[in-house]
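Annex B. Sample input.
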Amino acid sequence: MTHAARAGQAAGGPLRLVVVVRPGDALGFRLAGATVEEAGRGEEAATLRRLAGAADAGVLAVEEEVLAAAGPRPLRRARERGLPVVLPFALPRRWGEEGRGRAYVAALIRRAVGYGVKLGAAGEGP
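Annex B, continued. Sample output.
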């Protein structure tokens, strides 16, 4: 059993996913059924500190602009504990833009398996 799973059991209940975005970027996540917190300018650090300290926090999916504005301090304890897992992501800002998440996912895979992989879009060749 992983450290995260043990911590989740110790908290007494299921762990939850929370998506943290800028105001106005939450609608799609809410329509998908996700719990969403909006962090306005100047509120990033306090929002992340509060969410990271919640007993049922399992995964914080944080938009990278929010994460950058908060700085490293609000999530230091989460990194030490291993929970919540912080998953940065980037939203596309223009129609047709994929966002910058592909590079992050490739880095996660490289770290996990020890080998770099090339990620392609659906229908692309090897």
